[in-house]
């Protein structure tokens, strides 16, 4: 079977789990049965807003004024994980 990149998750596919009062884990519900693959990245509350760290690229970072905007970043671009 050939590996392929999956399409961007819809907002409904995203799962946001608090890790602390200033950090959230962002996952893809479509891949919940696949540990390590369902995790898309993290969102951290900073002095300047909400910082996104995506795992599809080591340089995939961004800053947003609200938590909703930060979560929406994960639905704008295809996921970087390949699966079969």
Index terms:
1 helix; 42% strand; single chain; mainly beta; two-stranded antiparallel ribbon; 84 residues; five-stranded antiparallel sheet; disordered C terminus
Strand order of the largest sheet: 2-3-4-5-6
| Beta-strand proportion | 35-45%
Whole-angstrom Rg:
13 Å
How can the largest sheet be summarized? 5 strands, antiparallel
**Distance, first to last CA:** 6 Å
Low-confidence stretches: 80-84
Can you tell me the overall shape? globular
Q: Based on helices, strands and strand pairing, what is the structural class?
A: mainly beta
Number of domains: 1
Q: What's the rounded overall pLDDT mean?
A: 80
Report the count of strand segments: 7
Number of helical runs?
Answer: 1
Series of H and E elements: EEEEEEHE
Percent range for helical residues?
Answer: 10-25%
Describe the model:
With 84 residues, the protein is mostly beta strands. The protein has one domain (15-79). 12% of the residues lie in helices and 42% in strands. The protein contains 1 helix and 7 strands. The chain has one helix at residues 67-76, and strands spanning 4-5, 14-20, 23-28, 39-46, 49-54, 61-64, 82-83. The strands form 2 sheets. It has a 5-stranded antiparallel beta sheet, covered by helices on one side. Strands 1-7 form a two-stranded antiparallel ribbon. The longest helix is centred in the C-terminal third of the chain and has 10 residues, at 67-76. The chain is globular and about 35 Å long.
């Amino acid at each position: 079977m050939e590996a392929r990149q999956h399409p961007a998750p819809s907002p409904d596919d995203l799962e946001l789990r608090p890790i602390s009062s200033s950090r959230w884990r962002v996952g893809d519900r479509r891949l919940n049965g696949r540990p390590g693959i369902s995790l898309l990245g993290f969102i951290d509350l900073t002095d300047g807003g909400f910082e996104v760290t995506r795992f599809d690229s080591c340089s995939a970072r961004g800053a947003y004024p609200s938590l909703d905007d930060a979560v929406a970043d994960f639905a704008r671009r295809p996921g970087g994980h390949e699966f079969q």
